[in-house]
What does this fold into?
Amino acid sequence: MAEEIFLPKIRLLREASLELLFPSTCSVCGVRLGWGEQTKGPVCTACWGQARLIQPPICSVCGQPLSDEVSRDSAEEIMINCSSCQECSPVFSRARSIFYYEGPIRHLIHEFKYRGKVSVGKFLARSMVSLWDSCQVGIPSPDCIVPVPIGIKKLRQREFNQSLILARQIGKLLKVPVYPFALKRVKEVAPQMKLSREERMRNVQNAFQVRNERKVCGRRVLLVDDVFTTGATARECSLILRQNGAREVSVLTLARSVLG
Ligand SMILES: [Zn+2]
Ligand SMILES: [Zn+2]
It folds into this structure.
């Protein structure tokens, strides 16, 4: 009896607080969200349904999606690096991304990064952890999580580091310590959008330093970033972490931009 009286009240209170916590419209298409949808996050079911997960077959090292023909022709060879890993052996043990950087995911990352919607970022981080298994991420439990740092100029403009917000949420859910200041960006880099792979690699060269060697020395580090494009940033950060004694570096990004 008591339950019957209190449950609706509790539900109302819960819903009211959800209204405050989540915007009532979809962050992608603007449609008004139903109660059920709001509990899931700031995106409607239709838009979320269009988010594409990166799933095997992928390169076992850099995580690059491979065509289906590759998997049919030579299942064994999936374990061998893709052509780009063979050309230039990555310093990280493995890199994995959850989503393709396109459609609703691209839109949500934009809302998070450039329009300051931190709640969208937290929702995306929760999704990364809950989809971890479906994507067969295959990253062994790390000793610590290190976000890719942004430069002071960008930090002043944006007021937050998107990778740190993702890292904090992932750390909380995986119960792994996060070291926000283990890496430091010592060189502001030119926007990477239109640069080739080689130009990107030159662009980020010597852009990072390890600030606190003791935090990473002998540890299995999970490096977290928002988008993986050519892997130049992941490679440079991993290199500096390894040079400072990290036992192993795995890279996890929210999304991956797959170049045509
Ligand atoms: Zn929508
Ligand atoms: Zn590869």
